[in-house]
Amino acid sequence: MKKLAVVVTTPPYSNLSVTALDYVETALKSGVELVGVFFYQDGVIHANQQVDIASDEFQCIKHWQALQQTFKLPLHLCITAAEKRGLSDEQPNNIHSIFTVSGLGELVELVNKADRLVQF
Amino acid sequence: MKKLAVVVTTPPYSNLSVTALDYVETALKSGVELVGVFFYQDGVIHANQQVDIASDEFQCIKHWQALQQTFKLPLHLCITAAEKRGLSDEQPNNIHSIFTVSGLGELVELVNKADRLVQF
Amino acid sequence: MTTLHIVRQSAFTSDDFAQCLQVLRNNDVIVFIDDGCYNLHHSLINTIDSAAEIQLKVIEKHAKARAVTIDETQYSVINMSNLVELTLTTNRVITWQ
Amino acid sequence: MTTLHIVRQSAFTSDDFAQCLQVLRNNDVIVFIDDGCYNLHHSLINTIDSAAEIQLKVIEKHAKARAVTIDETQYSVINMSNLVELTLTTNRVITWQ
Amino acid sequence: MTQPLPKLTAILNSKAPYSSTAGKDALDIALIFGSFEQPTSLFFQGDGVWQLSQGQDGTIISVKDYLKTFAAFEFYDLENIYVCQQSLIQRGLTADFHIEQVQVLAQKEFAEKLAIHHTVLRF
Amino acid sequence: MTQPLPKLTAILNSKAPYSSTAGKDALDIALIFGSFEQPTSLFFQGDGVWQLSQGQDGTIISVKDYLKTFAAFEFYDLENIYVCQQSLIQRGLTADFHIEQVQVLAQKEFAEKLAIHHTVLRF
Questions:
Q1: Which CATH number does the domain housing residue A69 bear?
Q2: What is the distance in angstroms between the Cα of F113 and the nearest Cα belonging to chain B?
């Protein structure tokens, strides 16, 4: 069975990120192995714990959390991109706990582990 | 003398924001009255205290701080746009102290006070 | 050896789709998703060489949400599961966004 | 009653400059700044009616940083102070970005 | 000294809905300006004209559909709604909108209407 | 079972420098892939070709000039650098680049070269 890796570059307040989530969820539910999701560029804003999307709008992060827990899906956060956008893994740490703080070396790993990489 | 208002919609890690700053600084230094700067859309990321731009890159926020202090320049932060992007004026408050937390009503004020509004 | 091209932006606003067309090869697959759905009626579509046997597909709900009509003689209508399958059955993916 | 058009994006990538040209009126001023400097040699420039007496200006350092050459018979070279002045001497500003 | 006339504000919409926050950000400004009784006009050009298309349904793609709020324009005295005819034609669209009182203007009229406004914000 | 060949990665650059982080983000990936000895090629298309123009100087507009780092490509074994000829022609640019060993490819060759890569990241 082929393995997938996904890169997310769009922010949580864009519907483009809903599409990325939809793709990942559909892949997982149909039994495809996902070696990991790498959050880069504005995608890193997903990991900011203080992001407050109006309660009647789509809550991206809750859906990522459910996927992470149900499927043990690794969610990698590029820390360099994150720091530029106000996220920090030092005190006060504001990175959501479902994310693994990573560097671009992790993207090399994902590319090597996966048969296909899809960028969103 | 005519009065100016400025809207900033671009994030601190874009050179487009350096242009906005350059424009504001040039206006102030030539004696033009600036009634205020309104940070909207991705412009609000400027106000995130935890933004960490590499020390050898342009430090937008230090320059805004200098202008705010030297010229008593009001820097308004649209809180609705800010909350979507992980800023919060509740504890833990992560908004830089040089910004005034505002709503879109403030933009109405600026439009009325200013003879010209320039969007960046 | 085919490439899956995922087109996400309107060609009326940006030149991403035009760039996609520059690297298109025989038997490649194009899937229009998100704002890429606005391209279904763009004139650039007509520049695709019919001899190249390019497959043109669109995610139905993305077009429907935008009230973009789909000419099913020209485009095949797919869902997200089909896109996942296409990712695995083609040889590489390029996202134009 | 003139409008100052501040053009910040490349017309090769996006249609902002094309939209600007749609609303251009006689005696308006266009200033190319940031990635708008890439438009100095874009063919859309030639679609501007010379009878409309449009002023075309460019911020010198923005073009220079990008290694974009300026034909000074066609464009007047300005600095940021000039842009501030133009903001005050025209009647409104539209930023195309 | 006479009281200055209220300043006319134009909000120029250039982005399609959904993929960016631009349309919603522009709408929020329009409603605030309306509620402060500031005379405000809405312009739709380029891919911004998609915001007016009849038959859209963002809920299919999990968007809380801000376009429905356009129905409140009249309540907020936002009665000047202009769309660029050329942008419609380029996209093969007809004047079939999900709100009333949209005025389709040819390029020259669209430009002239925009130029009576004092402040222009573009999203 | 034989050891699989190392996967070829292509990084496709489509944005001009400075206004967005895209060029720098792509460069960071290229250098990391290079340092991990992953065979990686760089492609420049559309406004991405501006990244290669000779004579640019970001310091004039307060940019820390990441383009200078392109000189390190050879050190990182990033030796496959391709630029789309049609994109150059559209912009009136000649093959005058600030780094060596850039290969200008006609449209068909550019497409074919891209298609030998296993993974394509586009910025």
A1: 3.40.1260.10
A2: 32
In this complex, the chains that touch E, judged by 3 or more CB pairs closer than 8 A, are A, B, C, D
CB-based contacts of E89, cutoff 8 Å, min separation 6? none
Superfamily of domain C3-96: DsrEFH-like (3.40.1260.10)
Percent of chain A exceeding pLDDT 90 equals 94
Q: Give residue-wise pLDDT tens across range C63-90.
A: 999 999 999 999 999 999 999 999 999 9
Q: Do B14 and F21 touch (CB under 8 A)?
A: yes
Tokens describing residue D44: 């859309």
Q: Do C84 and A117 touch (CB under 8 A)?
A: no
Q: Distance (Å) from the C-alpha of residue B104 to the closest C-alpha of chain A?
A: 17
Domain ranges of chain C: 3-96
Token pair 């932060």 is at which residue? Answer: B77
Q: Which of E86, E111, E118 sits opposite D92 (nearest CB)?
A: E118
DSSP D38-70: GGGG-GGGGGS-GGG--EEEEEHHHHHHTT---
User: Crossing angle for the helix pair C80-89 and A15-29, nearest 10 degrees?
Assistant: 70
Residues of A that are catalytic:
78
ipTM of the complex: 0.97
Place of tokens 């356009």: E70
Q: What is the pLDDT of residues F19-45, one digit of tens each?
A: 999 999 999 999 999 999 999 999 999
Sign of CA dihedral F96, F98, F100, F106: negative
On chain E, the residues whose CB falls within 8 A of the CB of A14 are: 19-21
Q: In this predicted structure, what is the pLDDT of residue F64?
A: 87
Model pLDDT, residue E6: 76
- Write down the domain spans for chain F: 11-122
Domain assignment of residue A48, given as a range: 3-119
Find the mean pLDDT for residues C7-18.
98
Cut 0.80: pTM above it: yes
Q: Is the pLDDT of residue F5 over 70?
A: no
Distance, in angstroms, between B25 CA and closest chain F CA? 14
Q: Which residues of D touch E25 (CB under 8 A)?
A: none
- Residue B71: phi and psi, rounded to 5, are -110, 10
Min Cα–Cα distance to chain D from E11, Å: 10
Chain A CB within 8 Å of residue B86 CB: yes
Q: Is E4 on the interface with C (CB under 8 A)?
A: no
Please judge whether B18 and F63 are an interchain contact, meaning their C-beta atoms are less than 8 angstroms apart.
Answer: yes
Q: How many domains does chain A have?
A: 1
Residues 6+ apart with CB under 8 A from D76: D55, D56, D57, D58
Listed in sequence order, the residues at least 6 apart from E62 whose beta carbon sits closer than 8 Å to its beta carbon are A15, A18, A58
| CATH dotted code for F11-122 | 3.40.1260.10
Q: Is F4 a residue whose pLDDT tops 90?
A: no
- Asked whether the predicted pLDDT for residue E2 surpasses 60, the reply is no
Q: Which of B9, B10, B23 is closest, CB to CB, to D83?
A: B23
Contact C22 F114 (CB under 8 A): no
